[in-house]
Amino acid sequence: MKSAPAPRRRTLWRRFTAGTGLLALLATALVGASTAPAAAAPAAWTPKPAPMTTPWTSQVSVDNPLPEYPRPQLTRPDWANLNGIWDFAVTGRDAGQPASFSEQIRVPFVAESSLSGIKRRITENDKLWYKRTFTVPSNWNGRRVVLNFGASDWQSTVWVNGTQVGAHKGGFDSFSYDITPQLNGGSNTIVVSVYDPTQTGGQAVGKQRINDVNPHAGGGIFYTAASGIWQTVWLEPVAASHVTRLDMTPDLGNSTLRVRVQAASAGGRTARVTVSSGGTVVGTATGAPGTDLSVSVPNPRLWSPDDPFLYDVRAELLDGTSVVDTVGSYAGMRSIAVAKVDNILRPVLNGKFVFQTGTLDQGYWPDGIYTAPTDAALRSDLQAHKDLGFNMVRKHIKVEPQRWFYWADKLGLLVWQDMPAMDTGKTPDSAARTQWEAEYHAVIDQHRSSPSLVMWVNQNEGWGQYDQARIANEVKAYDPSRLVNNMSGVNCCGSVDGGNGDVIDNHVYVGPGNTAPTATRAAVLGEFGGLGYKVPGHEWFPGGGFSYEDQASVSALNNRFVGLLDAIRIGQLPAGLSASVYTEITDVENEANGLLTYDRQVVKVDTARVKAANQALIQASRTPAPPVTLPTGQYRSLRVTTPGHTNKYLRHSEALAYTAVVDSGSSALLKNDATWKVVTGLANSNCYSFESRNYPGEYLRHRDFRVRRDASDGSALFKADATWCALAGSGGVRFSSANLPGSYLRHIGSEVWLATPGGTHAWDNAATFTEDTTWAVDGPWAP
User: Fold this and answer.
1) DSSP β-bridge partners for residue 562
2) For residues 43 and 6, what is the distance between their CA atoms, to the nearest angstrom?
3) Can you give the pLDDT at residue 418?
4) What is this structure's pTM?
5) Cα 142 → chain centroid
6) Cα–Cα distance, 590 to 552 (Å, whole number)
């Protein structure tokens, strides 16, 4: 790797106009910049070699990484970026501040990352120490100075000029301190210590595990830890009375934006909120800080993935008629809820059902670990979703910086936000629960105004699970404007379903499997897929990659993946599925099941073909075909429609399913064997099961692909095997397996099998496949 130039440490002072809203956010050249010199970093500092380089690895500035304004929904004219080279040291976990800082680290990249310049394994026995100096510009005189941390994992303590100004626990929420009393009018020193026990502690940890920072075998679905400061550190001057947060909730029913202006030292002040579009004011409201203000937005242009329109917002604090503080922001007008659509409970965006098709996005980088190397890189994964035709992303077990949410808002992607889990296989104690819930509330507060965020995912696959129902109820009460998922993967890994929330969420690999809606919850597939393909030259640990189902070629990967999307469209969408999350957007370390490689250098799949499949899925949800309905509680016989065999019917014999000629002269036994009672699907009420006429309590089901008649054992597997979803066919009805959607009830050579188009078994033969999987539902031979 080419050596980086010797860095010049500096504080970057920036100014832009808060009232210009989105235009200000998009500007990268910010006017009024000045520099305040600090101690020079050693010329020897360079990043460590990355195990894989992304397109942005070499673009990271030494002394000014991530220069963009870090808080897009609460902007002010003046700010100072403290990212860059800091002095650094590692001590024992119980040690005090070291006498010397012998290393340098590039903030905000974690110590385990190559971009930090440290690239070292950090354990529960270590404490990280950061130090740098800064001066405050003279034009900030008379204002308070606030020190902001986007995020630092996990227990952070901050000193300014030798005085502790605060301590914070939490790896995913931002924190700030008013450091005005500690400033000395000249060169000021910040010291930060961070202790991060990762999985050995009881805190929210997500997928982080203490491992070797160099590529290695193993790791499974857990990855390199991310210790210390991992988001932007910055200063801003504020008035004594100032806005601290804007809570914005659209109310489409009343064509208003409800805004609560949270403020500090705001007694006797008035809040004023102005919403505008293209520079034209559309509504204004005034009232007391901390109360809900309703700003009229007549005939609102609704935010959606197809039209992610954002209004500019300006909030002011007034002392009488004088403005004492102004912040810029933005908002999107949209609603999210669950409602009955054609008698199926569905999530509805702006009152309309649209299938949510997305991927699992874990937010890991081979060069920055938890921190994207640049803002363009941060945006790129979201843009990849759009390019591939997805309209949703599930941010998995991690909470991104606020600029990630800005790009989701701007580009138009629905976001499911996971609360990062505590460690697996442990029951959290009281202290861990209190901390986890406090951090969850802070995360909700910091992102509650983002229009893209439509669902909170509380827990995943039972990791660190407890009080599922209570937490779901409390999250819904704390943010009633969004959907709540009490547990993603209720069918997996010993997880316990709280039974409440807005959705029921299964994980099925490879899937897509069967997830059925209930009377109170919409059905979503929180994880499926995991198709693997290793791209030579783009593996984290060559030869160490794994997936849920390896594909032999790019062509096989494309065919299999598009086949899964088509199976959802054809079978699961009509059966009640409302959303699906494919694992995953990129490879992560040894997980080789991404649509892109871990280094983001290669898109493995055919972009146009995947986009077309996603668009077809979304369009099918907007203009659904009329459902195929069968007469439940009545007897019917299933007749073959393949030319030359239309006098044959599906019958059972010795517990196996066959086809046989049945006519008026057939025996009573044959007529009974060829008659089935249509009942509501045992595993999905939107599908059907077929109960034997002469063996009540026994059902048509598949097992090892052979279709047979078996007695129910009451298991979930049996119920799914015996559930068939009816789809319209040419001249009849096709029956797709509820738990293997895309596979169909087929006769071949007088035997009946569960067959898959493009499959490799003899019964998957392509010849007359459609005809052989289409059945006429006739009157019963044995009424």
Assistant:
1) none
2) 5
3) 98
4) 0.92
5) 43
6) 18
